[in-house]
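Internal QA ticket QA-208
Title: Verify multi-chain structure generation after dependency bump
Assignee: T.L.

Test input:
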Amino acid sequence: MSDPKQNAQQKPGAVQTTGHAWDGDLQEYSNPLPRWWLWCFYGTVLFSVLYWIYYPSWPVGESWLKGVGTVNYTVTDKKTNQVQEQEYRWNTRSLLAADLTEAANNEQRKAMLAKVKAAGYDQIVKDPKMMEFVRSVGKGLFGDNCAACHGRGGQGVVGMYPNLTDNDWLWGGGMDRIHETLVQGRKGFMPAFGAALKPEQLDDVAEYVLTLSNEAKPGEAADRGKEIFHGPVGGCYYCHGADGKGIPSQGAANLTDKIWAIADVPAQKTLQDKKAVLKTFITNGVNNTRIMPAWKGRLNDDDIKLLAVYVHQLGGAQ
Amino acid sequence: MSEDTVQLYQKRIPIYPRSVKGRFRNLKTGIMALAYVVYFLLPWLRWDRPNAPDQAVLYDLPGRHFYIFGLTIQVQDIFWLAGVLIIFAILLFFVTGLAGRVWCGYFCFQTLWTDLYMMIEHWVQGERPARMRLDKGPWNREKIVKRGATYGLWLLVALWTGVSFTAYWVDAPTLVVELLTGRAPYAAYFTTFFLTATTFVMAGLAREQVCVYMCPYARFQSAMFDHDTLIISYEQQRGEGTKGRAKLGKGLKTREERQAQGVGDCIDCGYCVQVCPVGIDIRNGLQYQCISCALCIDACDAIMDNQKWPRGLIRYTSENALNGRKTTLLKPKTVGYGVILTAATALLMWSVLTRSPYTGTVEQIRQPLYTQLSDGGIRNTYEVKLNNKLTAPMSVGIRIEGLAGATLDMDGMERIELTPQERIKLLARVQVPPVEGGKAAGDKVTFVIEALAGATAEPIRREVPFYAPASN
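Actual output:
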């Protein structure tokens, strides 16, 4: 590139110096700023003043300058269901609220919700778009209302809250049954046999129950237990069925599968321990510990419907 | 100390470029015409595209699609944009190293629009002396009418520039109607206003100041120059002779007379200075303000032709050529840029040409990590995301392999019809039967996502983990 010194020599005065010489010959060029640049700078100062006035800005004591900007969006009154437009001060929270109520995504969401509302359970399950919507909305609903007991993924806690992701349903896994469970709640009950049965009888019944799911080998003790289970002494078959597969209409557990909702049998190493944990529940029964609250009145019908489908797909079709 | 003479701020020194005719002017006008035809008309070109907008070039931001003729670019392919930008950057380095500021002189939109604005100015107000007179003169009727007409025409051009720019982002005919009837979205008005304002200010008022004060490319292009780079230069030896330049005068008419007196070929007519759009004197050597527009070459050539002297007193040359050395074009730097440019272009082309008509990803749902089923089998669940990138429907099949005994349950959605450009998330359950005493099965499963109808493509294979408890 051109040598500025040479330039200056060719056109004297083309590049100004500040006029000060240091150490004899050291000079500083003065390249003045363009005038418009100065005006741009003044413009930004003016802009900042307008910005302070329009948007929330300076802290003042315990409060702050609120700004004159406003955001409008429609609000639905939860009690009266009245929709009306309201004006709010400009801040990012009201911007978000406006976005949530009026954004295009929300319109899509409303349309999809209307579609799900109108459709029957069989239709929803077969429609990929509706199921995508149910999983998306249901995840939030489940997280807000159900996850406290059943866990974020619906996996439950053994002995306390049922696992909703497996294919075993205490109260039935059909869509209408899940809907009923949600609407009216459930209360699990098993009478205590501690007084009715002698300790060795308890032991025998426990051993028999374990054989149903191959946790124990058949033998004399199991045979004795079988008699108690199917006879008038124990009478277990009244609820758990002659085949031990339980009766979903009354929430009686299936004893023949690998899933233990109350007694954590799989976690025990020895037969003795398995029997011990089982006997605790046979002795004391189950009362007032397995309660699913009713959600009617706490959730609206749409949310219950969405949750029924969501919970149904967690565990798989039945 | 003479600090009072130091200027901190400087008013713009007005430049009144004289018009010039010549080969580089013609080349520039040609490039300009072509660029304007493309820029202003492209949004109006239609393209038959079923199930999608029919605008040939449309950057649909809300719909998350870029339509460029037959190519539809989805959000996930946006890295192609990075590829295009990288190619442009390297192309700039390559060309600048080789041929100087070609971009600035011929192609930059600042140059093109400034050129157009100067043409309007010239058309309304006349040639350089007339414009200078008008500028210095009082605000009389003539000045008001001529200035007003110039600004009015500038504003029209600016407005149409703004509308055309906005038309690349929305349907052009709809946009124009909406803009006129006041129903266009806020963003459309703002974009149009912004482009109008910047075009007017930058091309009408700021002009060369954009290149000198604002443009980063202008500054860093200078750093890519070397002694072999093509530059526009005045041949000092020929122009100045031994006694310097001199006007045509008595005894200085012919070349022979001048050479006998030691006077160079430059007749100091100042035409090269008057045509310069950035207001420099090329005879002072290479300067950072020079945008290599080559108009001074046209000016000087015209004078030389007039004198019947050989052309080329001001010409494209290189520092080496000026100093009598050879100009080498094939240098490691140029070759390097060339190789990178070719590689980047080839890579982008390959990526675009081998794009899949659909995408499919599989993600494991990790809460719970696995579920034990009533028969003792183990189940893992996955979220399958599908995206039909076509503007036509297609059907996609999903199956699994690589895990012994595993079955896939997607509630009957193992085969799914996708509408044009549909994206959807599906739930997939993979379960393995119980295994006696030990780990349930392998720890990986491969999802095979195939296009069954509507498109032909290699199946997408996604290997994902399958978790099972250590023993059951």
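Spot checks passed. The CA atoms of residues 117 and 204 of chain B lie 6 Å apart.
Status: verified.
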